Structure formats: C-alpha cells, structure tokens
Amino acid sequence: MAVEKKVLLIFIQADSGVDGAASLEGASAKRSLFSTLKDTALSNIIRRAQFAIPPLALMILSSQKVPGVSQTFCDLRFENLPLDQHWDMAGISVQTGAVRPAFELARALRSRGIKVVLGGPYVSIFPDQCRDHADVLVIGEADDIWRDVQEDLLAGALKPEYRVATFPDLSIERVVGKSALDIKSYFTTNVVQTTRGCPFSCDFCNVHVMNGHRLRHRSIPAVLREVETFLKKDKRIFFFLDDTINADEEYAEQLFRQLEPFKIKWVGQATTALGEKPRLLDTFRPLRLRCPPDRH
Ligand code: B12
Ligand code: SF4
To answer: What is the mean pLDDT of each run of 10 residues along the chain (296 residues)?
Structure first.
C-alpha cells in the first residue's frame, strides 16, 4: 500500500503589521520555562488583542481532499513549527509583508528535504521574485489547482510552477471545512467570502490585480449553507472577508435579508458609497453591522 503523503499548510505572520511576532523554532528546540511562559502569554495577548482569525486561503486548500494525502495546519502567529514530525511538503501563504520570514522559513524547510510550495498574493503578483525560494510556485487563486498539486505530489511528479489560467468560477459550490483548525485558538473561526474581485482601481491596492475587476459571486444558497454549518461548530461573530461587501448592492441586499433568520453578528468592509445607500444600510442594520477601520 502506498504511504500517505503529509502536507503542512503554514500561515506566517507579517514582518510588520497587525500580527505581531512568533517564533520560527521547531517544537523540539530546547527553551527555558520562562521563555515558554513568556511566549504563551504573548501569544494569548496577540490572539485576544488582534482578533486573530484563521486564514481562509488555507481553510480552502485543506478542504480540497485527495485520498492518500493528509493536510495539517500550522498558524505561526501562535504555534511553533511541528518539526518533530515528518512532512513531505509544506505550503506557505505569502503576503508582501511576510516575504522575508516566508523565504527564511522556506530555506529552513528545504534544507530538511521538505518540498516547499509558495502561494498567495505576493507569489501571484511577483512570481519571478519567488522562484529561487521554492520547489513549487502556485500563481493565482488555488481553489481548484491545489488538487493537481497534491495528486502530483502523490505521483512524485511535482512541477515547478502551477499557473491558474482563469479565475475560478465562484458560482460552483466548494465546501469549506474547519476540520484542520484548532477552533479555540481563534477569536472566531467564522470567516466567509461571498464575492471576489473589485470593480474599482485604487492605485495603492492590489485586489483588482490579484482577483480581477469583475466581481465574482458565490451563490446565495451556498453562502447560507456555509453560515448554517459554521454556526454548528462556532457561534461567535462572522467576518465577511469580501473587500467590498457592498460592491453589488442587489446581491448584498438579497444575501443579508436571507441571513436575518440566523441572527448573527458580523463584521465586513464596505466602500464609503454605503453611506449613500439607505436601503442597503437598513438591510445590514438588523444584523448589527460593525465597520472596522480599514483602507476603505
Ligand atoms: C482577512 C484579511 C486579513 C486578516 C487575516 C489574514 C489572512 N490572510 O487571512 C488580517 C486582519 C490578520 C490581515 C492582516 C494583514 N493583511 Co490582510 N487581508 C485580508 C483580506 C481582506 C482577505 C484575505 C482572504 O482570506 N482572502 C480570500 C482568500 C481565499 O484569498 P487569498 O488569501 O488570496 O488566497 C488565495 C490565493 O492567493 C492562493 N493562496 C493563498 N495562500 C496560498 C498558499 C498556498 C500554499 C497556495 C498553493 C495558494 C495560496 O489560493 C487562495 C485560494 O484561491 C485580504 C484581501 C483579499 N482580497 O484577499 C487582505 C490582504 C491579503 N491583506 C493585506 C495586507 C497588506 C495585510 C497586512 C500586512 C496589513 C498590516 N499592515 O498589518 C497584514 C499582514 C498579515 C500577514 N500575516 O501577513 C494585503 C496583501 C497585499 C500583498 N501584496 O500581499 C491584502 C491583499 C489587502 C490589500 N489589497 O491591501 N489581513
Ligand atoms: S475599493 Fe477597496 S478593494 Fe477595491 S481597489 Fe479600492 S481599496 Fe482595493
């Protein structure tokens, strides 16, 4: 019987930014009781003060299951790398703010014979800068292509590059699970994306480059099913990770009216145009819209 391949999916904290520092040391590294206690206390503070939510990208990847491959999550904001175990491949999600530690980590893992796959916003926009730092690059939204990478790992035929030819069609239902998550580690694990892409072109922002100018929608019944399923495991607040929850007002109005029976609390990002849309604001109000300070 073929041996199961083990994949570690890693979310790495940015060098600067809201996530704070975490150790890249392996679980096996010798540390004093004081430093262990200090790190645990620090992690707890980071977790609570910064509302750590799980990376949706890695939830999506770990939900793409291929028989013969197991996927494990490691969130370096408050976990150490489990280097006391065997891993065949590690997938790291790279945002621009986390490039330096991501490349350092990739080097350390590759020196142990672990195949490293880099993906995420930075890799999709600047693949040339990443090539030397990985065995495999995944360029673009990996919702479907991640399955190919796992199958190639099983077959011993990994390619140096997987490029997503067209943006994934979000109207196809892809179930996102939380089985790889340590639910209690997070402020909430209810992270949901209803649309991708942005019709605007703010010059400081890469969303319209990364996800395209055309807004792609998930089907409303699929989002409702996800909310219902997520609530079974975690009753806390929902984070809608869309870049502009009001980008398509008609869709948003229909969706949030149908979400009313769930009586959830939620957070989302909207453009200031929302202020001029009293009907949409009214739709949001019963669900207790909270507006976090952000770039919009
Ligand atoms: C929620 C969110 C956060 C949350 C959670 C972080 C997270 N990544 O989950 C918090 C608040 C912590 C956060 C913090 C920051 N964020 Co933020 N965040 C977002 C937001 C709104 C949604 C992220 C998300 O879940 N997207 C949905 C998923 C499905 O898309 P995705 O992450 O791109 O993943 C897909 C592909 O990229 C790829 N992929 C991703 N990772 C991997 C890994 C592998 C191995 C593979 C194969 C593929 C792959 O496949 C995925 C599925 O299609 C995005 C905007 C956006 N549109 O993405 C900004 C965004 C990612 N954040 C951004 C920034 C700048 C930051 C901060 C640096 C802000 C700061 N100054 O502190 C920090 C950095 C945090 C860090 N650790 O690096 C930028 C990144 C820009 C860049 N060039 O990298 C974005 C794009 C917004 C923007 N345009 O400014 N963020
Ligand atoms: S509206 Fe928001 S997501 Fe869209 S381009 Fe501007 S800053 Fe980026």
So the answer is: 90 66 46 65 60 92 97 91 96 94 97 98 97 98 98 98 97 94 91 96 94 97 98 96 95 96 94 92 72 51
Stated pTM of the model: 0.90
Report yes or no: 274 and 280 within 8 Å, Cβ to Cβ.
Answer: yes
Give 159 Cα–ligand 1 centroid separation in angstroms: 25
| Residue 87 domain boundaries | 5-163
The reply to whether 221 and 129 lie within a common domain is: no
CB of residue 205 inside a 6 A radius of ligand 1: yes
Are 69 and 143 in the same domain? yes
**Length reported for the chain:** 296
- CA–centroid distance, residue 95 to ligand 1 (Å): 6
End-to-end CA distance of the chain: 53
Domain count, the chain: 2
